[in-house]
Fold these 4 entries.
Entry 1:
Amino acid sequence: MSFEGKGRVMPDKSKFEKLKEELQEALEAKETDYDRILFLSTEIAKFDANNVRFTVDAGHIDRLGKELVGKPEIAVAELVKNAYDADAKEVSLVFEQAWYVGGKLTITDNGTGMTRDELINGFMRISSADKVNNPLSRIFKRQRAGRKGIGRFAVQKLGKKLTIITQTSEMTEAIKVNIDWTKFEKNKEIGTISSQIESTDKLMHHGTILVIEQLNGSWSDADIKRAYRYVSKLIRPAHFKNKLSIENQENTFSVSFYRTRISEHTIIADEQKMIFDQALAKITATIDAEGNVTWGYDSKHFGKEENFDFFGKDKLFDDKKELDTYNLKNIFLEAYYFIPSSGFHAKQDDNRITELLKQEGGIKLYRNGFRVSPYGDQYDDWLGLDASSDSRVFLPPYANRHFMGVVEVLDLEGQVFEERSSREGLLENTSLTELKEFIYKVLLSVVFRIAAKRGRKIYTGQEDWEPKPRIKPHEQVQETVMQLQTAFSNVYSESTPNNEEENDTIVTAAISNEAKTQIDSLLSTLNEQMDEVRAERQREIDEIAMLRVLAGMGVSIGEFSHEVRHYSTEFKLGMDRLHKDLISTQSEMLSSQSDTLNKNLDGLLSYIRYFDANIAANVQRELCSIDLLEQVELFIEKMQPIAHRQNIQLIVEPFTTKAYTLPMHVSEWGSILINLFTNSVKAISRANTKKRIIKYKIGKLNNNIYFEILDTGDGIPVENYSLVFEPFFTTSAPTTPFSTTQQEISGTGLGLKIVKDIITSYNGTISITEPDEGFSTKFHIEIPQA
Amino acid sequence: MPHELIYIDDDNVGEYCKSLNSACPGEINVTEEKPLQFDQIRELFNTKNYAGVILDLNLDKTPTGELIDFKANTVAQWIRDKGVREPNFDIPIFLFSSDDNLKASYYKEHTAQVLYDEVYEKHTRLESDIENVGKELLDIINGYNQIKSAKNANPKSIKNLYSNILNCSIDFLDSLDSRFIPSEHLNLEETNLPSFEFADFILHEVIWHPGILIDEKLLAARLGVDIELSADWEVLRNKMSDLFGYQGIFGKAWPRWWAKELVSFWYETFNEHLRSVPADERIKKLQEKFRLTKLKSAEPMSTRGWPEKYKSTFWTICEFSKKPLDPTDGFLVNEKTLKVWQDNRYFSIDAVILKRQKNIHPLEKNRLLEIDQIIDNNLKAMSEY
């Protein structure tokens, strides 16, 4: 069965013949028109009755460029990758007039460059298999980043015109190709669009320059930064100075972004670089090709140190392995150390730095110039910094969010630090373990050193720790006063009457004798006041020391009276049974002794109960208006057994029903009442009288609540009325110069001082006044009412 | 054989046990046990019958340090549930706890409060009065046993049962407020309720709340006697007991007198209504009737700054000072629920105004403000400033 005459369209014979003739002419012409020959042969091939061929529409380029690379920064990254694959060590990207659409981008790399063949069979060939066939770069054996051979069409995305100038070190001239992407229109056969190729003078020893003109988009600083960030995720950031470029160690790669306005190149600062100036210290460590180790830090605040030996390091690292004994080579660490909110950098940058460190903090690993994931990614803790820091064994901050840095390893053969086949990370071998240890130790050594210099503790319970001496504020003021004096005396000497030159008359006029006297007097007043401040301060220090002792004692009493409750009940129960048994013996002596014992125990238990309740009241921190009548009633109820034992009568005489004080702590009234009560009890027992009464009077006076306690004790001599409120004044046993603090406190000398402090802190008053008829002492307290 | 009590507490409570046991020698035997996990506690009760249980509120930990995540309330509820069907579990439960723990949880919700027959605070009541506590435990255990035998005697009616356990005639019960018994238990079937139900009612509503019964202080107040100053009080009290003392359950640990019978006695003896007789006249008549010379009438209270004299027609006591009081000289105490046959309780003016007792009935607030103002003005006038 034949389709002839039915399905097959017979070629137009005359057109076919005409094309053949035209091709013949074109082949024979003196000037070969390649485009025309290609076009004619393609057209002739369409008359092949037995075969069909795929053809590529030129518009495909447009689709490749646009669909492969969605964003301009990815396009730029693709081109940087190409440079890397070409064994370039440096790539620069210069944006010219790029603020607006139509600008120019020049990408220059110092890679191997391309020969004419390589250009035609490599660069100009779509989906070239070159990178698949040769996965490692020629010189540095880099793992070539580009794989599909189509990344170059990214340039089409960027701009309308591309000029390639490439040269190898062997070539004497460079090759220049101009590609006009606008010619790649739809409905045109791709092979028939030619781009001009020419030889030109070499612009560099070797390398490739891509000039992209008529940029499709505008490039703001933010756009460029974005492109930079994208690229810097792939390669070691340029601002980390590359120390590995020592001899024979040339496999490095850096990218710089510039912007040109008129003729000047301006580096577009990236965020990271901006904050490095604010770092507390820059930490570096190098292990060179011979295995020599250098490490140390450089800090604006704490100077510079290298390979230092620091005290206590044997305590800090378990394995005791010294930093110079690691079996590593070609390692370079550069890290910036930050302690946000510590006052080492500008406050306004605090949030930004903290935020950036949160995202970008950590030590990133670069192998032969290329980033190895996931080391140093957000949430990655390959050095164990977060884990160790969280354990809070060491106190200074050293989590990942306190560093921003890179560690670079040079391993051209790829044998020391082997990549996993998945390209995600390195094999966990001895070298990697050693590297982790080394970096961890370097970082911590510096962190601890800086902590020591800041006067901070490194670990809890550190014995050799001494806080950094601090210049006290009053000493600073003193210093300033002295400087002021010197400054003034300089002014005087310059304006002495002996010097009568014209230009000094203004100064002389400004500082008249009157003013001079005034300044002198002010300065001397200032000096006197400074002395007073110092004395006042000393008093305060003494008082704080005392309060600290008292607070400690208070805590102990609280603990004691609470804990002792467990025993008190058992004690009391045992005592009761014993008492019962002793009474049953019918021995008068035994039962009377046991009776006394029982009463004493009751007294003790009342005290314990009172203190326990009082301490429990301390738990309530809020201030509240105190019903003084209620407080006194409650107090008396608790103290009744003690008073009873001492045969003392307690009387309350209210002179108002509304004795509400301004907001205070309940426990403060507890302190006031117990101090005054014990004073009275002691005074009564010293007086040894028959009339044993303590009386409380509570009333209102103007806008105050008054509270009086009267007793029938031995009284206080008038000359001591004001002295009793002084610390350490006591009527019972005078403190001697040899008495200890403990004695001073327990010797009652502080009770009234504390009472007075509480009352005066609420703008109240306490005084000893003329006692009522029949009483020997009267304390009068006034406190503002609610 | 002494009654066996088990006391579960994580603290060492050996001293409590000894003191409780020596309070009622040969009658109770309290044994200390450490808290255990629930299964083990259940085992403990299944292997031995106890006459009563003492629980520490916070059981906390087993002796081996395992945490216990339930409180005494859980054990108590379990016992109450079992007690409905099993007489061995129909027993009194006592709570011993520190005041801190009671405040921290027990007083904060009321559902657990009905589980226990009585709650004792460790550092106050148990420390100072453990001998009487021991007697109370014994009396409650005995009371439970009396209820059980009364139930087992197949009473014809609920009144029969009550006449048995309250130890009074049915006629007498009938003479009381008609709402007293029916208000609680209506029919014969309810004699099948667990003993706890009866014990709870009698303890909380009859013994511990004045109304049907009155205690010694109230008896003395109504008789106008000052207990402290009357050497013959004991004699008089015993005579009153002979005449109308309460002889029912729980009456040993909590001596009580029939309130109604006191009024009847006075009316029958002196042909007058006791309520309106001043204290000194009451004393005079008692002295004559019983030939007791050492009786002294109680003095009415006084309040600094309060111009009125307290009346001596005592009928109640001040709940703060426990001194005799005519209710018109007091403020009504605020009580959540009061049965119609129960008496109101009062604080004296003194307790409220000067001793700061605050739990008074809301209806008394305005009166309080008025009296407070009068006293305040008078007190200020007394001040020397």
Entry 2:
Amino acid sequence: MVRATMTRRELAAALASSTSLVRAQEERKLTPEEVLAQEKADVRSESEQLEKFNVPMATEPAFIFRP
Amino acid sequence: MANIPDDVFFATIAELNGKLKAKEFSAVELALAFSERLEKSGPRYNALALSLREHALRQAREVDDDIKRGRFRGVLQGIPYGAKDLLSLAGRPTTWGARPYAGQVFDFDATVVKKLGKAGAVLAGKLAMVELAGGGGYRYAAASLTGPGLNPWDTTRWSGGSSSGSGSAVAAGLVPFAIGSETWGSILTPCAYCGVTGLRPTYGLVSRYGAMALSWTMDKIGPICRSAEDCGHVLRVISGGDSNDPGSAGKSFFYAPQYARKLSDLRVGFAPVDFAEWAEPTARPAFQAALEVVRGLGVKTVEIALPDLPYSLAAGTIISAEGAAVFEPLIKSGQVDQLADQHQIAGLKAGLDIAAKDYLKAMRIRSLIREAMRKIFIDVDVLVSPSVFGPASKISDPLNRGFRPKPEPKDRGLRDLGAVGNLAGLPALSLPCGFTSEKLPVSIQLVGRSFSENNLLALGVEFQKRTDWHRRRPPV
């Protein structure tokens, strides 16, 4: 008979190993080029988020020009 | 040579001023005692960028001469202090906490340094900071020319950033007060992590002339002290218009707690979800108790939440775009690669890719945020929330892996108050409010309308009359 459930201990072990795997992947030393690519991707993603946010046309940027 | 008792290193400005006037010790003796302590213990916390012992003794001698002649220049006269190493002092290195600027020397004093000197305060040292005040976005506490800021309450923990040395030096009794700066969290975070009191003034109230720029529209300079009252004394001296700072509001601040509104007239807004769900579980009892103390002050409390706007997105875009523009020569020269934090190097480089339309969109969202806050401050006078939702992180932990409650609370409460306060240029006062079960300090913040510092300080002073968290000392 195939057991379809896990004991709490097995579940904890599985979760711990998957968490450490993710963490290990995250902590793998990225090259400077990879980090830069990541940061540039963040800039693009933030640009997309900003694009989706509607601002009333009459809203001016929050700075004041003082002649 | 007077023997300076240990208590003196943890005395408030008013207490030290009283002892100087009573001639318990001279200004020179006090400057020497603090200089020695700063030189000896500063490196223990990576808090010291540069000792200024000789400079301090020279200033202190002038103070002693003044006191002998009966010339009293105010409560800061003869009080030693430290300045974040982004403030210039003529003829001495100003490193901005970053290797590419390690040999940088200016030939003029920052306006705040000049004002404090005129008031008789004694500059004992430059204090360590996160490189370039964190411009570009850093991932590790070690992002500094002087190494990670270590927390006096537990040296395996971070002292916070970017005013790391200012926070830890005040907490460890190495200086009676310090000057820090905030673009987004750089005063409030080290104050919360180190258990000291700090004030982020309204944008434009304190001149930034002679300070490193990170974000022209968001940079502020403010005091880090032992008490709310001390913050009032320091702010009075460093505030005021300055034609050398294009962002100057041209206003002064007069510390007048006697004229602040009656506490029973104040309406204080808070969000229960901040204290019960967004806060880290180990910090919740301290935050809840602090909220009860605030209620006990006789103020009217009102439940409130921030409207749904992209606060962090707007703040991040503005700081990244302005920071990349400020440091474009550093980035283009390739010297940016000398910074300690790989993410910060990449963040600064990527910041140059931010399109003008995105920066302007963020600045237009900022207008909406300012308007939203104007409406909130029709219903309340002060907002109260945890300064940071948990205690200091471990030195080795990446800073993007902070606590996040699971499941995430549905109500946003005042969770983004840090981004909001900085985007809208609002003043904030951070008050130590207890400890976690791991004996790490936590703090609450009070945020008010622009130029309402006297209200925040009056509330802060009353809070500190009823609590003694600001009097606690780390095991130094």
Entry 3:
Amino acid sequence: MSDRAGEPDAAAPVAASPRERAKVAPAPSRDAAAGATFRQRVAAGVADARVVRAVHLATLHKVDARAASLALLRDPEALRDLAAQIKQHALDRLADYLEQFVANLRRAGAHVHLAPDADAARRCILDVARRGGCRLAVKSKSMATEEVHLNEALEAAGIPVVETDLGEFIVQIDHDRPSHIVTPIIHKDRAQIAAAMQRAIGCRYTEDPAELTQIARAHLRDIFRRCDLGISGVNFGIAETGTLCICTNEGNGRMTTTRPRVHVALMGIEKLIPRLCDLPVFLKLLARSSTGQPMTVYTNLITGPRRPGEPDGPRELHVVLLDNGRSAMLGGEFESLLRCIRCGACLNACPVYRNIGGHAYGGVYGGPIGSLLTPVLAKLHEHTELSRASSLCGACFAACPVKIDFPTLLARMRARSRRDLPWPVRLGLRIWRWGVGWRWTYEAAQWLMRTLLAPDEDGWIRRGVGPLGGWTRVRDLPAPPGETFRARWRKGLRYER
Amino acid sequence: MKDEPRDAIAAFVEVLREGGGRALRGTSDAKASRAPEASDLRVQGVGPESHRLETGATETTAEGGWAPTPSQIESLVRQVGPGVDLVGVFEAAARKQGVQVHCVAGGDWPAAAAAILMNAKARRVVVQPEADRFFDAAAARRLAQELARACGEGACVTFDLDEGTLFDADAVVTGARSAVAETGSLVCDNASGRARGATLIPPLHIAVLHAREIRADLFDVLADPALARDLPTNLNLITGPSKTADVEGVLVTGVHGPGQVHAIIVSR
């Protein structure tokens, strides 16, 4: 079979032990992003034309695919409303559903743990790994584990962990960070991927995506044979049955939860939905919103560990319920963010994301959802500047399968964090508020604009005067028309044909 | 293995219930101390009220509270209704996702499977015995005979579901619990001694199912009350071969799971 064709000659050694990883010079991106300010990160994101082009192509393709596949549904709008409604209901009664979920998980034979914060989640998973005597961990793609920085903790404790989603695997061997919720290496081209693969697993250099995939498959198969701990996230937790639903296209979500002796699932508490009959609502929206597929290739429903008489599956199943700031959002003004199903549609739709890339957001989540979730999870003590990385165009709101009202929330966060702005900007905003507050000040401002701002020949204003220069440095303003609306109104507005 | 002390989760649930989350709210409180605002209100227009269905009838869940009834959900999610040519709809949807569909009459399926395996030059074939379905040991033996006849001496058919065997196999033949016409998905489970890895590990997967087992809509499979009552530890909806588009958006099949998926639909 062709799947063996790309296998390296020698039984490929696992390249993921901490010692071996240390030999490879770390790529700069991870550390550079950590210390840089938002402006610096944006500048870095915009600077690489190759990346900007790649992200444009990929996201625009997904926007089209999403639209085409949603259009095949009978009533996609009603379905989005229903999804939002079910999620909101689950949040409203989260205590009850959590209780039911935990009881059903235990009935099915799973161990349940609670992690109030990221540190507790890391300690809990490490503890499970140590008690199970685990030596080699595999990971299915999971944003929750990114959020708690699990890999670093496991490696520091001497348990090598290997990402098995192809994109995340390449992120890991290249010491990079994911830049998209669904397609983590959206910012890399095939040459970079080929170089990373050659460096990390010693395979021959090839830029053919199919061949690269086969090499990764062979390499990861060897690891799947030997691993004893599987770590996954959860797409949906079903309270009624204690079922974990994990959706993947590659099969990493199934391999990780089938092969190892111990399976640990890290699940944000907001992932709960009430019943099995609610699941089709989300399954019909998730893949369509994400990639335009009608369904992800594998929709995996796990209810408990291996039972006696079953030929395979993990002997132990641990579910770690992650709070990490989520319960604090309940009932608050940013509660609706907890409806998010991490489909990535808002990232694809966002013109700002497309231009600055996922790394510029600085957090684990990029795009519109990251602009809100990152500062909210940090209790608005940091990253609030992200809420200004939006034109408030609402493309994210229009794409969101659970109808999170991003523009309203972003505007609210701007208002909440206006004290974080530098004083000249605050002063400017104060003047603006005064200027638009009365008719005479507004008209005076209009007159001033006309007099002070000179448009270029093509009718756009690119250089503002004085403090406005800062504003027009990154924005173009269309030149005002010859006459204001108010002036025309006074003269008696009429349609001219 | 000791659990997290039970009271930790119970206490967390209690706090959530009493405060409805508000007791734990840190976001607004932390902010309020810095910038008290009159606009500290709940999100307007995106709260639960604005999403209530207008159809009136709602269901009180076991725990109390409100949720749409299954029939309300069905009225909105159902894409494919009864009374259509389910085999035809399934075939079209599955093909679109990269599944190769073969329709055979009566007991001809072992010959069809043997043809696929021969075509793929499969040598080591695992057959999952599924006594609770029409796809039984006798039929599997017939497949072994067909295969031996078609592929000659080199072919080897085993009923062993050991993981090592699955990792070394070229192909696997299984049954399917049902299928979804709407999405072209196969529904496979691990009840009755079937393996989680059987439909995943070998590079070629052939699933055999009766035409009458095809359900119209995803809703029909997942909202079946019988399923919720008796869930196997693992249930998979398989929609096409394992695939990725991580490298520059180029579609590649056969990442961790099978690169080739065949559905043999047996009709009478």
Entry 4:
Amino acid sequence: MSPEEIQQIFFVECEESLAAAEAGLAACQAGTQDADTVNAVFRAVHSIKGGAGAFGYSALQAYTHTFETLLSDVREGLVAIENDLVDLLLRALDTLADHVQSAREGGDAPADAVLIAEMEGAMAANAGAAAPAAAEPEAAPEPESAPETAADDDEPAPIDDLDLAALLDDLTSDFSAGSSEPAAGEEASAGQGKSWKVHLRPRSGAMRNGSEPLLMLRDIAGLGGECVYCDVSQIPPLDSFDVAQGYLGWTFAMPEGVEEDAVRDIFDFIGDDCALAIGNDEEIPEFQLEKTAQPPKPEPVATAPAPAPAPAAA
Amino acid sequence: MSSITLPARCDRAAAEAIWPELVAALGNGALRIDGSAVEHVGQAVLQLLVSARRSGGGAEIEASPALTEAARLTGLTSELFEESEL
């Protein structure tokens, strides 16, 4: 797998993170401002920052650092979610998308000094200041300003370092194992140097409000975890399928050096919406059919030859 | 053979839109699902694709890099892309 292809994967993940952040902020705008929603936005931006650092996109990394610091304040409840803030975060997300695009296409980074100043002005340590930073939009951003340092206390640097290293390790090892004989490679690497297992089953709540179980799986993979089993036994046939249910369960093998708490932290914000069991003797938590708003049955299906599905027939 | 094209963004809303299409295509033999334009995929669509593969005449899925990567992450590569033994 070439470096270009590895980067392509990174940008695929960026698109997913941008989509998750957008969904989360749209929910915030619509009035859903709970911890899960804010966390989903935070994690999305955090994930882009990690990759940007690993691949050396310094402009993208610097920008996401400011963005993430502000989101961290929001997550900690230090900055209130008001209309102006959501508006600022949405504009910041637009510019983040521009940053990702310029990193991907090698163009000039977008002008972000004004936004960075605005975001710094909105941070907890500055909100009490007499003049909002937006009043001086041309002010040069201070990359190492005090508020960032303060906010970083919540998100210790070693975790970021671990993320970066693990991301690259994970990418490269996956590709070397998967390139020739995927199945055999998976089994072999799953048996080597993996010492403990984490089992999880996202409930329907883990798929709502901008939450996406795959982002958590990516975080596990970012720690060096590898999927050894996906339980598909609960998936019903199409005609009794309920889109709102979580039907999948997973077992991941984690490298020996990874702390159990590092995995638990990933699921901290999702709480009961993702059942978790840690340990080699554990199993994937049991499936529970949940009550959802989804109608249980589709419209009756005609047996007529071709009820051409509307938009997508090709 | 019925054919269904997946959108670029396969989130939960997309799963809700695709599901009736898949159900409507049941009974028309094997289904072809074109996922070559997929840039983002979540659990809701992945599990729906597994269901489609296991329902009716099964389904053959063409994958984009993003879909391939998501299947690898979730351990669903063979479930989604290996030739059906039905």
